[in-house]
Amino acid sequence: MGCIILNNDSTANRREEFQKYFRKYREYVFIGFLIIAIYFTSFYDNFLLFHNIIEMIGIMMTFTIFIVFWNSRKAIDNQFFTLLGISFLFMGVIDLLHTFAYKGMNIFIGYDANLPTQLWIAGRAFQAIALLLSVLFIGKKLNTSHVWVVLGIVTTVLLTLAFTGYFPDCYIEGSGLTTFKIVSEFVICLIYASGIVLLFFRRSSFGSNIFYFICAAISFSILGEIFFSLYFDITGTFNILGHIARFTSLYFFYRATVHVGLKDPLELLFQNLQSKHSRRLHSLIENIPEGIVLLDEEYKVIIKNSAAAEFLPYLVKGKHTNKVRNIAEHSIEDVLNPPSSDLTFYEIHVDSPDARVFHVGGAKITQGAQKGDSILVIHDITTQNKIRERVQTQEKLASVGKLARGISHDFKNIIWTISGAAELIESQSKNEGIRDLGNMILEQAIKGNELISQILDFSGQSKAQDEVLDLKPVIEETVKLAKSSLPVNVSVNTTIKDFKIKINKIQFQQILLNLIVNSKDALKQGGKIQILTQLVHSSKVKDFESMNVPLPDSNFVNIRVRDDGEGIDKKDLNKVFEPFYTTKPTGEGSGLGLSQVYGLIRQHNGYININSTKGKFTQVDIFFPLHEN
Length: 629
What we know:
The chain is an alpha+beta fold and about 625 residues long. The chain has 17 helices and 16 strands. The chain has a five-stranded antiparallel sheet. The chain has a five-stranded mixed sheet with strand order 11-13-14-16-15, covered by helices on one side. The chain has a two-stranded antiparallel ribbon with strand order 1-2. The longest helix is centred in the middle third of the chain and has 47 residues.
């Protein structure tokens, strides 16, 4: 015995799906049935029944469009709807008189079928030109009073010409349409077509639904004018089809404005609201430093603020940033759908066109009108990243300096003991081999003592008597001393102005000699070392590229040593002052030279900055407080 199992869930789903589609398209179904019902009235012996019904419903929609937009004019800052909305009032007046003047109504005595046809052409020409002007005035300011006056005068002139017999004939009893009427219909079609083309190029001013509805309305208007150019008898098929096309056109105008406007005002009022709240919100988004991007379901950029417009070229590969497929090496799907449910920010380092660091995160919109779209948030953390690295470096140097201070004195005592023992061996031993051994120990002890002095210089504990130095003669003396040890293919150029600073002369010469030797080592193929001095105020000094904090508000003497050697990698700049850190091959440097320079400069309230590009140059800037008499 067989049995049938009913899948209740499947049936419920199909019913729900049908209801959803019915709710979505029921208005179109209703309009379709209404048009069919009105069409059947044309089979009634009196053609006036069909004509009056379809015209009066259309006129009601026309006046409704005007009423809605007139009462919401203060909330709409778009001249397209302002001009078009007012024109619908005058157009409705012309269409109402056209309906009253129709043959058989017997309201305007003494007129034949020519008058309603003239009024029809006048109304359609009025509508087509008003539509074209509405598109042209998108984004421009109009004086509403002037619009009323101009449209009122044009309407009065057209009606006066029609009722006084000065309007060109459009329909002759027994002959049908005149050439003027047929040509006019095609001219009106051409004006409509021009309007739809211009509208396409300015479609960004509208929500997508409104744009499509207006295009549909204009298209049916064109179709209707074509039908109206073909009929011979006012009760003929083409005249009926023309009225149906005209009715459909008015419905889409109504759909684009009143229906959408009342159901979804944001769709209608698009991007030019006069609302203070909306303008303030726009101003806030535009002026925040973070980049904000709204993406559609295909990840095309819908809206981006100024910061995002600046940041996206760094993050999106390719010349065009209108569609986001990847954020650096991350796919857009990974950024918008992180592994955890929390908002995740990716730290992205970019080297081109210049070094930047970004935090990038985003999320899908799951509710509201923008459901399915995504928001991308971009933080530029380049400056914060530099500050963080500087703080870490300062803390590291402070810890190393504290350690150096703690052990250097103990090591110095040990070295003194070794030195004393070596001197005793050398002076008292009669064995030449032992005396040589004692001498070697003494030499190494002296080097160890120098190393301890360098460590003390770095830790800021070196003892020396400071003096007021005239920089120019001291620098010239130091450069002269350094030149004797430089290769012939390395030259030193100086541009020195004389300033006074307070520092021990020997220590200053140690600083300068260290920098000159480093520059010489970087010039493996030869080149130039440039030394200059200048007076600067701290406000004129740009943010440091290496590890220093901004200068205090004061005047400083800037001593610059620059070479066009092999340069330093960006990743190494924050490490160059660390003791025993060196990029030179093993055995070619202790890694204490720049540490000593750093310690001596900071000991005298100075600052040092290194800026370098690998393969191009290295520039060291020292800033000492100006000593003023």
